[in-house]
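Subject: design request, 431 residues
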């Protein structure tokens, strides 16, 4: 048998092996590049790789109806969509909305004034991108309802989103992984609880450059693996940031935040930590004197030790994310300028930001949205942009970029930077 075997020269084996390694590198690089594509330029934290509706279909919201063709409810009823808005105004919903997975909600496409979804709860699922939207609950929804729910999912990012008027909490996140809230407003929760956010054992959660304001407590309640970076907590009632205080272990990296007392605030800007809360903190400030000036003091170990938290010398989560960290004073200015659906803030968000600008002298915690002035009435505004093939790209933009305004398929062409033509347009609206 052996006389029929032919020996392969060593140089041939070496050459074949090199080709195999090279092909493996190329294959791995391809998968890695795709997997690591940011949701959009400027996406931060653990939810930054959410895919959303990339490469899927486009749905135009053409009216402010609660349901039916052209409505927001219909737009998010099927997965794999990018939702664009041909109308601006208030969408009043009587029942809860369940958003399908793999959705991009591009609120930045709405005409002047933007989009508000008002009246009930909106829940989200895996791999979702939500930008420049306002979600507001109502005293008319069920007693235990939260305005926004992001439970049992992987990969989601909320960017420049306003979340208000929840009856239990404004925001609820439970058993989810890889979540980011950046440049968001979580404010003015209403009866019976008036709480900001309940975070129940999510893993790898980033809250960044966001504003918690006018909530009685839970700003947020962090039973979580969370990095809480460059946020502002203003005019809490009973308590500000609340620890997990449970038998399970929780890990909280708290960096560069500003806790500013308002007219309704106690001195408890930190509350209900226990030994199972493993806290890393640095460069946080608290301003409790309510004198209209930003002149707070550095938060110390003693502030956490009095709450019996387990203090860490090194962060638990920061090494795993790419969040760019500024000082707490810079964070205050960024939140003033950017938090919430800030392309065009409506009267509610302007009032909330106005309270924050007072640096302790103005603000309130309300029982109902009516006490806060209610949801402003606004007339619908329709877009004047021409999109002949309904691919989400204006004809003028397609012409400039040498695309075909009669061919909807070109919106999904992938560019060298990893984004589709449609994403390139959407990202450019908010540069």
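Subject: RE: design request

Done. Sequence follows.
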């Amino acid at each position: 048998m052996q006389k029929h075997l032919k020996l392969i020269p060593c140089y041939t084996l070496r050459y074949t092996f090199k080709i195999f390694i090279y092909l493996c590198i190329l294959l791995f690089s391809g998968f890695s590049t795709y997997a690591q594509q940011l949701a959009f330029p400027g996406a931060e934290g653990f939810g930054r790789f959410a895919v959303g509706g990339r490469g899927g279909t486009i749905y135009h919201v053409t009216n402010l109806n609660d349901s039916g063709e052209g409505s927001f409810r219909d737009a998010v009823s099927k997965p794999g969509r990018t939702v664009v808005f041909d109308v601006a105004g208030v969408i009043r919903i009587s029942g809860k909305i369940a958003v399908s997975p793999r959705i991009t909600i591009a609120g930045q496409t709405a005409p002047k004034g933007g989009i508000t979804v008002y009246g009930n709860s909106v829940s989200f699922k895996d791999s979702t991108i939500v930008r420049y939207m306002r979600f507001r609950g109502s005293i008319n929804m069920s007693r235990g309802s939260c305005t926004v729910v992001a439970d049992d999912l992987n990969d989601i990012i909320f960017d420049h989103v306003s979340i208000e008027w929840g009856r239990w909490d404004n925001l609820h996140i439970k058993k989810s992984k890889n979540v980011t809230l950046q440049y968001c407003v979580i404010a003015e929760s209403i009866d019976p609880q008036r709480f900001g956010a309940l975070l129940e054992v999510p893993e790898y959660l980033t809250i960044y450059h966001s504003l918690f304001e006018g909530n009685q407590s839970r700003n947020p309640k962090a039973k979580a693996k969370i990095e809480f970076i460059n946020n502002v907590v203003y005019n809490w009632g009973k308590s500000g940031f609340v620890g997990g205080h449970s038998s399970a272990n929780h890990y909280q990296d708290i960096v560069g935040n500003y806790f500013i007392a308002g007219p309704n605030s106690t001195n408890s800007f930190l509350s209900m930590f226990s030994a199972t809360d493993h806290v890393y903190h640095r460069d946080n400030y608290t301003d409790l004197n309510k004198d209209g000036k930003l002149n707070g003091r550095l938060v110390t170990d003693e502030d956490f030790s009095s709450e019996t938290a387990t203090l860490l010398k090194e962060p638990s989560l920061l090494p795993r994310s790419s969040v760019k960290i500024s000082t707490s004073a810079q964070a205050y200015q960024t939140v003033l300028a950017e938090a919430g659906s800030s392309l065009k803030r409506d009267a509610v968000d302007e009032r909330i930001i106005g309270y924050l600008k007072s640096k302790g002298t103005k603000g309130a915690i309300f029982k109902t949205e009516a006490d806060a002035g209610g949801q402003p009435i606004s007339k619908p505004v329709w877009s004047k942009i021409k999109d002949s093939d309904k691919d989400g790209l204006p004809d003028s933009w397609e012409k400039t970029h040498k695309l075909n305004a009669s061919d909807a398929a070109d919106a999904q062409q992938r560019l060298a930077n990893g984004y589709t033509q449609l994403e390139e347009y959407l990202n450019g609206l908010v540069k």
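The longest strand covers residues 154-164.
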